[in-house]
Amino acid sequence: MTQKDTNSGSSSAPQESEIDADKLNEKYREERDKRIRDDGNEQYLQFEDQFAQYMDDPYVEPGFKRAPLSDEVDVVIIGGGFGGLLAAARLREAGVKDIRVIEKGGDFGGTWYWNRYPGIACDIESYIYLPLLEEVGYMPVEKYSKGDEIFAHSQAIGKKYDLYKDACFQTEVTELNWDEDFARWTVETNHGDKMRARFVCMSNGPLNKPKLPGIPGIQEYKGHAFHTSRWDYDYTGGDMYGKLDGLKDKVVGIIGTGATAVQCVPHLGEGAKELFVFQRTPSSVDFRNNKPTDTQWAETLEPGWHQHRMNNFNSLLSGGFESEDLVDDGWTDIVGNMMELLKKKTDGAMDIDALFGMMEKADHLKMEEIRGRVEGEVANQDDAAVLKPYYRQFCKRPCFHDDYLATYNKPSVHIVDTDGKGVERITEKGVVVAGVEYPVDCLIYSTGFEVGTAYTRRAGYEIYGRGGISLGEKWDGGIATLHGLHSRGFPNLFIMGTAQTAFTANYPHALSEQGINIAYTVKHAIDNDIRTLEASEAAEAKWVETIISKARMGTRFFEACTPGYYNNEGKPGERSGQDGFYGGSSDEFFRLMKSWREEGSLEGLELEVAQS
Ligand code: NDP
């Protein structure tokens, strides 16, 4: 018995013969060109000066103090989100007892700690997204979990693996220094800590630093404002389930229409007296079809089902062949289209260009379906026209929601499209688009998070390795690692993230694989009295070469994409290839790492054995 969906809500799919690929590609180019800007990533602002307070943690009492720590642990893990939790869990399973998680927030959860906006949910299926389900003994209540369930699951992982007892919450790392004499890292924090660690694992999160749009006049706005990642329920009333009764006499503006806005706009539309949604690029919004977990199905699951289901989804999204699509939702649907086209093709093997063409065709079919959905759900066809996305589906983060589009049918909700230009200006009173001022009582920035800026800027601390060289300095000319995890000159340091490693839509799967590798390596080092380990010069150089050469196919795809954080705001190139993810499939990368572990010698790492 399998838990399968039959995408029952799908609008009628267009036929292959109805697609005019040249015309669509021309339209995609036009829409992309409107959005290309010289300043790329520089268009955004950091939360500094008058905006610094927007980043205060709304979930803890201010003024937390504790005595500084100067002790030593085996492993310090920076970040208590899924990455940190997965590394810690796998280390515990490998028998490593002395672990300390350092986390800026007041609890575990990472993204799911900070983001508590109304409507927050995960649109990746819960049975593959939530980590360690079998280990924790938990079955999600729905196919797509809401934010509070995921946050609670993070806490459950913390409890299951006994991570609370030594964790440092509300603590920000300020600097890491490698001590050559003792072969230890010194970890300094904003509480005056100077703790030592034999190994450090950095899991800062890929979307941890909220950003503001650099719109002229943004400093002048006098109304109430906040970023979605620090939702101000004191002002809006209600909670993540909506009922925002504080807004019933308020005119609200929201800038941004990405995955976050798609989830919170329906609640704002419900709660606000009037809502203006300022759009630069529409999201692709497919069906979600959430439903409660079938408990009978859950009872049939055999041990190992969780990894099997994650692998099945990942293999399909990597373009692999699977006899069954277990998750069977909007994410795997595009692959379904591709398979249908392949089945029809009878004239022998395909070269790379033919495969590329086939993928384009499947994508066009999917996006036509998504545009058709907009037409079907949004009554006013002028609004529908601007809500239709014109780009390849994976140029931007695809969204899945069943109420977002229909929200625009409310007379109090208005889409203000900026024709790809973005908001023109912000004034004391509100927002200006095409010379028209829209006064608002409250302005919500749903403008996302920094991606593609320097690693250490996003981390919020510098890392000084052998000979005092900083990671920021080393990576100034481009990221250099072995497997994304190790960087030469920074011994006993593990980097969890997206650079030079696998990327998958189900991000916790990639983190899980990284956690397995870290635990394997640390255990090997402890068992074999290894004092230091670091990437060899040759292995690192070879990995960088691999990353650059494998990025080429992706670069061809991303160059034609509308700007966004997937393509370095419209500026993909050699550097973003090098700083990006592993360009082979994630499936391929996971298999590569498995073979690396099975080979058993920590190939590519230089090892220094402790003197007895
Ligand atoms: P995004 O970066 O996806 O969206 C930012 C939005 O702000 C975009 O619509 C962008 O437009 C817009 N914007 C930026 N500058 C301006 C401007 N000057 N004028 C007008 N609009 C502007 O951030 P999100 O917070 O929505 O999502 C971030 C990521 O978080 C997602 O991509 C996803 O990975 C993750 N997420 C996952 C969810 C899940 O269910 N798993 C749910 C929510 C988020 P433009 O597109 O033109 O750049």
Mind explaining what this structure looks like?
- There is one protein chain.
- This protein is an alpha/beta fold and 612 residues long.
- Residues 1-10 have low confidence and may be disordered.
- Among the domains are: 33-54 and 210-283 and 363-445, FAD/NAD(P)-binding domain (3-Layer(bba) Sandwich); 72-209 and 451-534 and 586-609, FAD/NAD(P)-binding domain (3-Layer(bba) Sandwich), CATH 3.50.50.60.
- Strands 2, 3, 4, 5, 6, 18 and 19 form a seven-stranded mixed sheet that branches.
- The protein has 20 helices and 21 strands.
- The structure holds NADPH dihydro-nicotinamide-adenine-dinucleotide phosphate.
- Residues 35, 122-124, 207, 213, 215, 255-261, 263, 278, 280-281, 397, 418, 422-423, 446-449, 564-565 line the site of NADPH dihydro-nicotinamide-adenine-dinucleotide phosphate.
Task: Label this structure with key terms.
612 residues, alpha/beta, FAD/NAD(P)-binding domain, 15% strand, globular, binds NADPH dihydro-nicotinamide-adenine-dinucleotide phosphate
Summarize the structure.
The chain has 612 residues and is α/β, with parallel strands linked by helices. It has 20 helices and 21 strands.
Name of the CATH homologous superfamily of the domain at 72-209 and 451-534 and 586-609: FAD/NAD(P)-binding domain
Helicity, in percent?
25-40%
- Beta-strand percentage range: 15-25%
Principal-axes shape call:
globular
Number of helices: 20
Overall pLDDT: 93
What structural class results from the helix and strand content?
alpha/beta
